Fold this protein.
Amino acid sequence: MMQALSKHLFYPLWDLKDRSQRLQEWKNLEEQQWWPQEQVRQLQWQRLQELLKYAHRHSPYYREVFATCGVKPEDIRTDVDFQRIPVTTKQDIRNHTNRFISDKYDKNRLVSAKTGGSTGVSLSLYFDEACQEKRNAAQLLSDRWSGWDLGLKKASIWGNPPVPKSFTQKLRLRLLDRVIYLDTMNLSDESMTAFVDRWRRDRPGAVFGHAHSIYLFARFLRANKISDCRPKGIVATSMMLLEHERTVIEEAFECKVTNRYGCEEVGLIACECEYHEGMHINLPHVFVEFLDANDQPVKPGEPGKIVVTDLNNRGMPLIRYRVEDMGVYSEKRCACGRGFPILERLEGRVADFLKLPDGGQVAGISLVERTLTKVAGVEQMQLVQDRLDRVIVNRVKGSDFTEQTDSLLLDAMREVFDERVALDIVDMSSIPQELSGKYRFSICKV
């Protein structure tokens, strides 16, 4: 009954109180996902042109960009025209934050956020409320693809969970958000045992959280033969979901995992549907490109740097923003019949690619995944390249660790790194988390 009341009464009333367009945008997306792809692309292009005109008029930074490259918004009629606008980088935002912000808004009245990203250097971001509402609507849509529905209580496995303080915040938690938290900054047998007890009392219907943190909790369930945590949906986000982790999670919960990709800067980028044939790109809200080292489009099936234009944010427009991730775009159509195209796979952050002495690169996160599935006795590992000729292998022993494990681990690494690169194994009790609660398994400092 509480789920029905939350979905059909409390959510609509709260939106009415806030004069929010979140639920209306959610209904729009529910319809748009089934449009033919050509029709959705027309909508996307229309919104892109509106954004370009808006940014030209109201964002001092982009007004100067348009003038410098000799392009006017009305000149942009094709993808090739759009590529005349230079790519926006994180450094551009750090150096000119205030110039990105629209002159139609008071910066102090915008929603603000900060992200450290892979470099640990803070990036200040600002959003108008309508943008936030549309982002929330896109999240509602993709949540439903996982099996979760509006009003259903969920278990959030997340770092630094928010603590409601005011009466309004506590009321919202009870009537709308309906979430219980496992703090990933304190993952221990004791905290996970307590969370299982809380689960049994509250019976959440969905799981949401960092991919690797969900995996650690799933391993705990399996190791302790706990079989009564059975959600209807699982959403893994915030970091790459490795295939061996997906397998363990699905076995422990007896539920499929929905992989979701987004970032603080632009919101939801892509998400798997119930068919799990790749991640559907959030076409109505973002314009996504896949570019090579020279900022030219790559072919479908080839890895490229992901560059995103946020079609929602008027408070701080971001056009052709390089998110510092690598991904592969596919032209295949999902069996579900949705018109949103497919992001076939992520290949990790740009900063996660390790460098070879001959000038080549290797996707560190893929190397970690391949090694973990190939070498028995390794529970977790992290690769840190601090010099071109050295990679530190932080290794956590698994229960099946033997005297041969480390030599097999080195053999697997030598398939990629020749003798010019020193491989130093460091025995670790656990892989440390970032301040955000996330984990990084490949770090290049070169």
Remarks:
- The mean pLDDT is 90.
- The two ends are 56 Å apart (CA to CA).
